[in-house]
Design goal:
With 546 residues, this protein is of the alpha/beta class. Helix content is 46%, strand content 15%. The chain contains 17 helices and 18 strands. The chain has a five-stranded mixed sheet, with helices on both faces. It has a four-stranded mixed sheet with strand order 12-16-17-18. β9 and β10 form a beta hairpin. α4 packs antiparallel against α5. The protein is extended.
Length: 546
């Protein structure tokens, strides 16, 4: 009966030649011919690590053993099958069960002793190789030489050293790509989203890393990995290496990322690689940190809550019937979401978003802050402020009188001590008076401030600024203009009309303090204490327009 033989060959590195497979199969075929074995199959894995069994050729070889198609597995050496002791032992156990012999050119027929000794040596070789490779990479990085893929914004320098060997890891700034990097950092610092930046780059024909299109994750990166262009400190002249390790999962065989502790991370100054300033870098990192910060109630990034709104009324329109929020219904319409879902709301009418925004902008500029109402508000504010001050002043006068009494008692005690009086309890009484004096001084320091000086033409100034803001929005003034207008709006309530053909009722509720500041209500400066007190004095910090 003929002996059926299967050949197996493997090489693990892309740096090895494809011919390595052919060479292994050639010498194995010659051995099989000398032994009189019939080669029925040849399996191979090119550029696959021996630390995993998830290799197509290896799995096909196992299937051939289990199906009884072969009697012998012939390979160059045992480490061609695997360098992992666990995998070598499992393969040997499977071969014994299938009554298949394992023969290598280096060790001969494999026994249990070979599995234990050679498998252990293979595992130790992998660990030693990994340690030496890591040490060599660290040495290159500490000399300022880059390792791995060249970051966007730089290009590789190819030259020979004094010994005639290529100098590896040398890089220099690419002027064209560096200009793109600066634009990305500046745009993000100014408030643009990574997706908008990527779309603009793609629309302008700017090619991304490795010739691929731009994606938002390429620019923003991932907080857990600390990757992405905006997170790479190389752009401020700091090369960072060994941030994480790729560890192979023994079950799935997939590589997973594990972050290293700060002590293991190597950072080297390379000032010649700087592209952006430290100020711009800090602005970008602050925004990245804010968007990646977890919510208090759920451990997910707050980024989704902090996306800049695209429209004036995003998230500010509510239903006057059920109190639910209005959502986009098609391209240009807003409608009550509970009503659409059939949750009992009768406000089924949709409103056009552009028309509603125009009405709200018109109301902000002309309907709020009517001159006669502003005058009445200013008079009432000053009157109430002075009344509260009068009540507080009574307490202030009493505190001043108490302070005078405490000062006299302290002076008498000090004089008595200077005269040699050593009565029991003098020290305790002195400490009590000093503590009382400290409390009285603190109370006097919180004396009420004078009433705020309100702008004489508050209503007119607000109207002028409101009109300017509206024109800026119509002209596409950008994110900052949109946010300035949104700050004036608390919410917009849309109620169903009384009849089926009646238009919906619209109620605008504005933020009082934002409106007052927009009108220059406090020209002497933005005092946080004044702002807080004005807000507390008003029964509602909102103004309405129906």
């Amino acid at each position: 009966m003929r002996t059926r033989c299967a050949l197996y060959a493997r090489y693990s590195s892309d740096n090895q030649r494809e011919a390595s497979i052919e060479d292994q199969l050639r010498i194995c075929t010659a051995r099989a011919e000398r032994e009189g074995w019939t080669v029925v199959a040849a399996f191979s894995d090119a550029a696959n690590s021996g630390a995993t069994t998830l290799r197509p050729g290896y799995q096909d070889l196992l299937d051939a053993m289990r199906s009884g198609k072969i009697d012998i597995v012939l390979t160059e050496s045992l480490d061609r099958l695997s360098r992992d002791l666990e995998h070598v032992a499992a393969f040997h156990k499977q071969a014994q069960f299938s009554r298949v012999a394992i023969v290598t050119l280096s060790e001969g027929e494999i026994s249990d002793l070979h599995v234990g000794l050679i498998g252990t040596m293979g595992a130790l070789y992998l660990k030693d190789l990994a340690a030496k490779t890591h040490r060599g990479q660290e040495g290159r990085v500490r000399k300022g030489h880059g390792f791995g893929r060249v970051p966007y914004g730089y290009r590789l320098i190819r030259r020979l050293g004094a010994d005639g060997e290529p100098e590896r890891g040398l890089r220099e700034i690419d002027p064209v790509e560096a200009a793109t990097v600066r634009r990305m950092f500046e745009a993000y610092a100014e408030g643009r989203s990574p997706r908008a930046i990527a779309q603009a780059l793609n629309a302008g024909g700017t090619v991304g890393p490795a010739g691929t299109p731009w994606y938002d994750v390429t620019i923003r990166g991932r907080p857990g990995r600390e990757d992405g262009i905006l997170r790479n400190p190389i752009y401020v002249g700091r090369m960072r290496w060994n941030r994480h390790a790729r560890v192979r999962d023994p079950v799935s065989g997939q590589r997973v990322y594990r972050a290293h502790v700060a002590e293991d991370i190597v950072e080297v100054a390379v000032p010649e690689m700087r592209i952006i300033s430290d100020t711009l870098w800090c602005r970008v990192q602050e925004r990245l940190a804010a968007e990646a910060a977890p919510r208090r109630d759920r451990d997910i990034p707050v980024f989704w809550d902090r996306r800049r709104p695209r429209h004036l009324l995003s998230g500010k329109v509510v239903c006057g019937d059920c109190g639910g929020g209005f959502s986009a219904m098609g391209k240009d319409y807003l409608g009550c979401l509970p009503a659409r879902r059939g949750h009992g709301c009768r406000n089924t009418r949709w409103v056009r978003r552009p028309k509603l925004e125009a009405q709200v902008l018109e109301a902000l500029a002309t309907r709020l802050m009517q001159p006669h109402l502003v005058a009445a508000f200013c008079a009432a504010l000053v009157t109430e402020w002075n009344r509260l001050n009068a009540e507080a002043s009574a307490g202030t006068e009493a505190a001043k009188r108490d302070l005078q009494v405490v000062d006299r008692k302290l002076a008498n005690l000090v004089e008595a001590i200077a005269d040699g009086v050593r009565a029991s309890g003098v020290q305790r009484k002195l400490e009590e008076l000093e503590a009382r004096r400290k409390d009285l001084l603190a109370a006097l320091a919180e004396a009420p401030a004078a009433a705020p000086v309100l702008h004489l033409n508050l209503a007119q100034v607000y109207a002028d600024r409101g009109a300017t803001l509206r024109h800026a929005i119509d002209a596409g003034g950008g994110t900052e203009v949109l946010e300035a207008a949104r700050a004036l709006i608390d919410k917009v309530i849309v109620s169903p009309g009384e009849g089926p053909d009646d238009p919906p009722g619209i109620e605008l509720i504005g933020q009082l303090m934002a409106i007052l500041k927009a009108g220059g209500a406090f020209p002497v400066g933005d005092d946080a204490t004044v702002t807080h007190r004005v807000t507390a004095m008003t029964s509602s910090s909102k103004k309405r327009w129906v």
